[in-house]
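User: tokens in, sequence out, please.
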């Protein structure tokens, strides 16, 4: 199989890297803000779940031990994903992890017709919400990776331009 070398124009690379850093910043800030808030818990988010997998998400909230694990993974997952995207460090892993984590958010709170959530910021959408858009943007970054072009991955994987 012939492997094609991906090359981007300066404009394409700039736009992709800026998108990667912006999404990374959003994830990093979300994780750090949760870490700094001693009262933060995913309990309300999980209990408020509606849609196809609501029962699974709501049952997760009923176990305090599981809730502690979910909270830990949520906070540190967001921080690791954010740092990975910002620094271009293991960007493929960070991107796939972001798709999975934000995919779980979307599955827990899908933008369905006639569904009202208690939490602010989850209303006034139909089918497409910010989480689905984030997932799609992360898929674009997965298909058009930039970490080996601009990022620590370039050093780690010894790729010279």
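Assistant: Sequence out:
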């Amino acid at each position: 199989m012939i492997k094609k070398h991906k090359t981007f124009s300066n404009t394409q690379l700039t736009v992709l890297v800026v998108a990667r850093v912006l999404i990374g910043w959003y994830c990093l800030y979300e994780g750090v803000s949760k870490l700094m808030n001693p009262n933060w818990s995913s309990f309300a988010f999980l209990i408020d779940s509606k849609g196809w997998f609501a029962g699974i998400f709501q049952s997760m909230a009923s176990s305090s031990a599981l809730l502690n694990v979910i909270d830990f993974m949520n906070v540190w997952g967001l921080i690791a994903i954010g740092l990975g995207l910002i620094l271009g460090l293991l960007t493929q892993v960070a991107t796939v992890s972001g798709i999975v984590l934000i995919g779980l958010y979307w599955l827990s709170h899908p933008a369905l017709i006639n569904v009202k959530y208690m939490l602010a910021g989850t209303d006034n959408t139909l089918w497409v919400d910010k989480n689905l858009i984030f997932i799609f943007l992360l898929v674009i970054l997965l298909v058009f990776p930039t970490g080996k072009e601009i990022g620590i991955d370039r050093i780690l994987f010894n790729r010279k331009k």
